[in-house]
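User: Some background: our group keeps a shared notebook of sequences we're curious about, and every so often someone picks one and asks for a predicted structure to add to the entry. Today it's my turn. The entry only has the sequence so far, pasted here. Could you supply the structure so I can complete it?
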Amino acid sequence: MQPEPMFWEIIANTPFRPRIISSLILLVGVSLLRLVLARAVLRLDSQNADVRRRWIVNIRNASIFVALLGLVFIWAEELRTFAVSFVALAVAMVIATKELILCVSGAVIRAGTKAYSVGDRIEIGGMRGDVIDQTIFTTLLLEIGPGRASHQYTGRAIVVPNSLLLNTPLVNETFTEEFVLHVFSVPLDQSDDWEKAEALLLEAARIECGPFLAQAQMFMKRLEDRQGLDTPTVEPRVTLHIPEAGKINLLLRIPTPARRKGRLEQAILRRFLTTYRREPKAPQFQQME
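Assistant: Of course. Here's the predicted structure to add to the notebook entry:
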């Protein structure tokens, strides 16, 4: 009985030997390059954790894309023969993998429009959180909640299919990156001293926002020059809103670091409540985005 041929003997005798060897070299080369680049990024102490994580994710996704593209070129002739011979099978596969194709299309739209990236805080399809990973099929969110009024992590992760980008509006809460404008509401009764409440609310906002107002103004000016936007003033501002008869809402707009919206809002409300007293009951607060 003759011994079974070894693996390398099978490769040596197959007509696809050059393509198999080329594929192995491509995969090994891409893997080594990805490992070297990832280690180099991790050693960049000058960048914060979000930037390093974003680069590592981009390196991984780029290496996968390069490997797939290289394999397509290497096996182009065989793939073309397969496509011609099995058209019916290809159509059936397209139907069966419709959702995956939609996810890949969503990833293309995300990359083309730069809708968001790792580290951004987004809301899509009623799901809200910080982007911590993204692939050609899904986006991984670290959930923020509950609801839009909260800015705390719930400890849950949400896997969002990229196909939602094709038919669902997306909100990027950190589009302006370093600083954002945040709005929340203080509801009052019409009989309350709303002028006093307005003055105290503005005073509390100026005190809490004072340490970074100049920095926020410079950032908004750079954004205006770079994007061609007509950016609003960053000074805290209160506007009046009457949602119904007998009710007055004080809408406070403030500049805030993108990651400190919740903490800054709570600091302003606590300072306001310690200086403002009214009868018969204290105002309740609700979030407005």
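Suggested note for the entry: Residues 34 and 62 are 9 Å apart (CA to CA). The mean pLDDT is 80.
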